[in-house]
Specification:
single chain, 358 residues, mainly alpha, two-stranded antiparallel ribbon, two-stranded antiparallel sheet, rod-shaped
C-alpha cells in the first residue's frame, strides 16, 4: 500500500484522501496563513507554481502543505512496493487525491491487466511464423512443409552374371506373355492399394486420399529406370468420397526388350526397398509382406516374358528423411505398377512389337 507523509509527525495509510476530508476544515485557515508566510519569506509568486497544482488549488480555494511527490520503486519481489517521497511544496487536497488516484491506477494496471488486455507472449512476435511448431510438423504437411532429403545409397545386387538392364534376348516376347503380365499388374496394383489404405486407416486414421494430400510436399526420390515416368502419373480423387484412381498416359514405347528391362529393374528395386525397411513385426506381417509378394509376382511375370529366370538389380538411392517412408514406398509401388500397366497396354496396341501366339 502506498504511504504519503505530511510535514507533521502524523501519517496515514491511504493516499491523502481520508486525511484531507476529515481535517481540511480545521487546517484551512492555519495552512493558508502558513502559505502566505512562506511565500512572503521566499518571495515566490503563487502564479509561478506548477500550473496544474495552482489550478487545483484555485478550484478548491484552499491548500495544505504537503511534499513534492516522487516515486521510488522498491521492488524486491513479484509484488512491487511503492513509496511516495515528499519535499516541501503546496498541494491542494483535490490535487493530492488526483495524484493518489493516478498512482493507484498506474500501479494496478501494471500488475493486473485491464479487461480485454492479455499478457504478452513469452516469445518474440512472429517467431512462430518463421520456425514451425515442432510438435505439429507431422500434421501440417508435414504435412505440408517440405524437408531436406537424406539420400541413402544402396549398392547393386550381384547374385547372377547379368544385370536386369543388360539382358540379351534372342526372340521377342509373345502377345500371350504380355497379356498375362498385364492381368497380373492390374490385380496386384488394386490389392496393394487396398492393403496400403487399410494400414493408413488402422494406424494413422487417414484415408489414402488424405495421406496423399498430407505428404504432398514430401518426395521419396527413389532412383530407378522408370522414375521420370512415375512423375507423370495422375492421381484422380473424387470430391464426394475418399476414392483415389491412378492413371498414366503415354504414346511412346520402345523395343520390348528395352521396356521390359526397365520394368524388371524398377520392380526389383522397389521390392528390395520394401524388404529393407525397418518396421514393427505386426506391420510387416499384416501389410508389407503381402505388398512384397505382389511385387514378386510381377517380377516373375516380367522375367517369364523375357525368357529368363532372374537378374541383378541396379544400385539406387532414396530419401530416408521422408515423413513416412513406409507410406511413400507403398505409394511408389502403386504408381510403378500404374506405369507398367500403361506400357503393357501400349505394347499390345502397337503393331509388330510382339510375336503372335503359335
Amino acid at each position: 500500500m502506498a504511504k504519503i507523509s505530511s510535514s507533521s509527525s502524523s501519517s496515514i495509510s491511504s493516499p491523502c484522501g481520508g486525511f484531507a476530508q476529515r481535517r481540511v476544515a480545521k487546517l484551512q485557515a492555519k495552512n493558508q496563513a502558513k502559505l502566505e508566510q512562506n511565500l512572503s519569506q521566499k518571495d515566490i509568486d503563487p502564479n509561478e507554481q506548477n500550473p496544474t497544482i495552482s489550478a487545483a488549488a484555485a478550484a478548491t480555494g484552499s491548500s495544505i502543505v504537503l511534499t513534492t511527490c516522487t516515486y521510488a520503486n522498491t521492488n524486491t519481489n513479484a509484488n512491487a512496493n511503492y513509496r511516495l517521497h515528499c519535499g516541501q511544496k503546496n498541494i491542494s487536497p483535490a490535487k493530492c487525491l488526483l495524484l493518489a488516484g493516478l498512482f493507484l491506477s498506474l500501479t494496478s494496471s501494471s500488475i493486473w491487466p485491464l479487461s480485454g488486455v492479455f499478457a504478452l507472449p513469452r516469445h518474440m512476435h512472429g517467431r512462430h511464423l518463421i520456425l514451425p511448431h515442432q510438435h505439429h510438423v507431422h500434421l501440417r504437411s508435414a504435412d505440408s512443409l517440405a524437408i531436406n532429403s537424406i539420400l541413402i545409397k544402396v549398392d547393386p545386387a550381384k547374385k547372377t552374371s547379368q544385370s536386369c538392364l543388360k539382358i540379351k534376348m534372342t526372340t521377342q516376347p509373345t502377345r500371350k506373355s504380355i497379356e498375362d503380365a498385364l492381368n497380373t499388374t492390374e490385380q496386384t496394383k488394386n490389392s496393394i492399394q487396398c492393403l496400403l489404405e487399410e494400414w493408413l486407416v488402422r494406424d494413422h486414421d487417414l484415408s489414402l486420399k488424405m495421406a496423399i494430400q498430407r505428404y504432398s510436399l514430401h518426395q521419396l526420390d527413389l532412383e530407378h529406370p522408370l522414375r521420370e515416368a512415375i512423375k507423370t502419373v495422375k492421381v484422380n480423387d473424387n470430391d464426394n468420397d475418399d476414392s483415389v484412381h491412378f492413371s498414366f498416359e503415354t504414346s511412346e514405347i520402345g523395343a520390348p526388350v528395352e521396356e521390359l528391362s526397365k520394368i524388371l529393374d524398377s520392380l526389383e528395386i522397389v521390392r528390395h526397398l520394401i524388404n529393407s525397411l525397418k518396421m514393427p513385426k505386426e506391420l510387416w506381417r499384416d501389410t508389407f509382406t503381402h505388398i512384397s509378394e505382389k511385387m514378386t509376382h510381377n517380377i516373375f511375370m516380367a522375367t517369364s516374358a523375357m525368357g529368363i529366370e532372374k537378374c541383378d538389380r541396379s544400385g539406387y538411392t532414396y530419401n530416408n528423411n521422408h515423413a513416412n517412408v513406409m507410406y511413400a514406398v507403398g505409394l511408389e509401388a502403386i504408381k510403378l505398377l500404374t506405369v507398367v500397366q500403361g506400357k503393357y497396354e501400349l505394347m499390345l496396341e502397337s503393331e509388330g512389337l510382339l510375336l503372335d501366339d503359335v
